[in-house]
Amino acid sequence: MKSIAKKIYIALIILFLYAPIGILMVLSFNESKTRAKWGGFTLKWYLALFQNEEILRALFNTLLIAMLSSLIATVIGTVACIAMTGMKRRAKSVMMGITNIPMLNADIVTGISLMLLYISLGIKFGMGTILLSHITFNIPYVILSVMPRMKQLNVSTYEAALDLGSSPLHAFFRVVFPDLLPGILSGFLMAFTMSLDDFIITHFTKGVGVDTLSTKIYTEIKKGIKPEMYALSSLIFVAVLTLLVLINLSPAEKKKAE
Amino acid sequence: MISKNKWLSAPYILWSAVFIIVPLGMILYYGLTDTTGAFTLDNITAIASAGHAKALRVSLLLSLASTLVCFLLAYPLAMILAGVQVKRHNFVILIFILPMWMNFLLRTLAWQTLLEKNGVINQVLSFLHLPALKIINTPAAIILGMVYNFLPFMILPLYNALAKIDTNVINAARDLGANHFYTFTRIILPLSIPGIISGITMVFIPALTTFVISSLLGGGKLLLIGDVIEQEFTRTSNWHLGSGLSMVLMVFILINMVLSAIFDKDGEGSML
Amino acid sequence: MERVLQNKIANDNGGFTLVKKELIQLIDISKSFDGQMVLDELHLSIHENEFVTLLGPSGCGKTTTLRILGGFTGPDKGRVVFDGQDITQIPPNKRPLNTVFQKYALFTHMTIAENIAFGLKIKKKPKSYIDDKIRYALKLVNLDGYENRMPDSLSGGQQQRIAIARAIVNEPKVLLLDEPLGALDLKLRQEMQYELIRMKNELGITFVYVTHDQEEALTMSDTIVVMNQGYIQQIGSPESIYNEPENAFVADFIGDSNIIPAIMIEDKLVSILGTRFACVDTGFGNNRPVDVVIRPEDVILVEPSEGIIQGVVSHLIFKGVHYEMEVQACGFEWLVHSTTLFPVGKEVGIRVDPFNIQIMNKPESEDEEAVIIDI
Q1: Which residues in chain C are contacts of B177 at CB distance < 8 A?
Q2: What's the fold here for domain C256-374?
Q3: Each residue of C146-167: b (16+ CB within 10 Å) or e?
Q4: pLDDT digits (tens, 9 = 90+) for B75-90
Q5: Which ipTM was obtained for this model?
Q6: Do C107 and B169 touch (CB under 8 A)?
Q7: Any idea which fold B49-263 has?
Q8: What letter does residue A140 receive in the DSSP assignment?
């Protein structure tokens, strides 16, 4: 009885979170161009999508920025974590405090502060400025997911590797890195997701004529969203969902769970 | 320790100096000067002007309301999830992060379709012979939009904090004579404070400073402080005023940072 | 009945004590997790003012038994009776017992005093009473003056004592302890063992103690319940468990021992590895396969001519109080503890006093075979 109530509650929250996604998917098959009414089933938006260069361009930009920014953030963040464990307590807590700023700060403040920076440094707005901004807000996600792993790390395994004659670098990649890997991966994934979903910071740091999906959608809101956009979003979502289901069902994961 | 190499920390120290510290300094500079570069407090006192003060008041009200709703929805959920087996941990986190893979503007827009006068929800309601829901273009719709967008940021820290509580600590309280309610108020709730503080911060700040949700779901009738600042930067191009108003917002952010520094020393309530 | 009597002897401090009253009865308790049987129709009685230890390897069901007693898990089947009253459905907060948890489970957000006062505040005791109790309990666990410290600032051993103090201020009739000393180092563990015995005697309450450490069980208990795979293997005083193990599992689990397959030829005569040994056991039948247990300290090494069987010393280790030797004799490796040194390679004779040969039935699965032979 109690457990049924619990399940219903979980289901309601999940319904709340996923209902808009369902709506968007339905709209992507809507013959009618307006969101307001159902005009019958069609696949034409999916076909139109692949002829819409503007949208494809924005998609490419989005994926490129997300990929590059999360990769670079992962490298900088992981190295920072390793460096921080060697630091004195005081210095470390100052660093962690600074790391928390982009997390706790409002996106709008981060956005305009970076915009002011680029202007005063005379950096031309475009893909470069978006990338720099995304790396900046992605690093904290990496650090916050690698740091706990770092704390759990058994230092003696590293020392044992040195004792057995491996070089520090070799020891790091063979012994420490595999232990950190789950944290690094989840930090990367988190950073990628945040980059993909960001609108506000990109809005302030992009140049004229350069668009990611978010900013493209924002400009379209006033004119009316092109249904191709629904089609594209549905495709991305389904692709990610499939990937996650596959990972979760893969034999390796199952073995680990057992 | 693994590395005492000082240079390892250099890239990140450099990066955070240039892209975190300096930009904040820029806001301070612009906020405290006028177009001629002379020192002034006008950009900050501008918050007291009728329009700005109202925008801030409405933003505070709506963001507090949505933070409260998020907390009330998320706490029971996080408690239920924390009771589930540990090996599902990653899966639980994924479920609440997954929606972010669909663009946030589109998802918020979809709520228009759901909430409209002849929208999906009202069609379902009328089918069930229930009264229609008239909240589109009202503050309630803005709150709903905020709750919808920021709920995962409340759920995850709460879930992480609650999942960390040793079941034997709860058993010990029961063993010493505490009923469910007493165990909750004296043990579970205090031990989850890091998660609560972190969740509140993660919801309240974005809700306070958002600038798209109100125009998408509120019908553009209510101007929030985020909308005001955004306009100062992109339309009126008065960066000085925009920076000054941002500094006012940063006061709230600062309060939040201090709170989380006090209550969440070890980062126990972190999202991941 | 025999067990009750032993119990009485073990508990008596020379008074007029009659047979102790049964305080707790576990009746036909079964419990399974994910389809795996953890307890199978367990039956156990615990007497008033007794120190009972549930002993067994991990997964034997001892912790589950304790959790059922505490009320943290319900049995699938069976009843828990406390002082004549069925408490199977009573939640933990209404049970007159308190638990000391494995990893202490202190409330880290409360001071030591607040931790100890937790149960008393729920019972709405007056403040002066609570303060007195805190002082008394801290004195009892030798931590006077720690009232305002936080649990995290204490060592493992100190936290353990606070966990005990927190439980006993509630004056439970029974104290349940789940491997409470498991996380402590050897020296501290031994100290705490003595302290627990002292507390038990001072407070006069029943202790139910769970451990996998056989030495701890032998040191502290009035009664030991040896468990394996959800079944009780043997119940008895430490002496009887050690000296007269009822089966090979108990013999193997409690201390070092030589467990040797043998044939019971007739009452008081057993054939071990083809050689006849006199023993004192009766009632096993004639020509019946059995196991014999001989403790290593009961194997007497003598000159070859004086021994019942002969062998050669194959290993030797100095253990401080004695030498540990392995002797190859009649195709069996005998473990021997002796204060006399016999160097490796030396031929020796082996003797065993009849009362040191413990005869056991073969384990249950093989029992059927034995029956068939009998027919």
Answers
A1: 93-94, 119, 122-123, 170
A2: OB fold (Dihydrolipoamide Acetyltransferase, E2P) (2.40.50)
A3: bbeeebeebeebbbbbbbbbbb
A4: 999 999 988 766 667 7
A5: 0.87
A6: yes
A7: MetI-like fold (1.10.3720)
A8: H
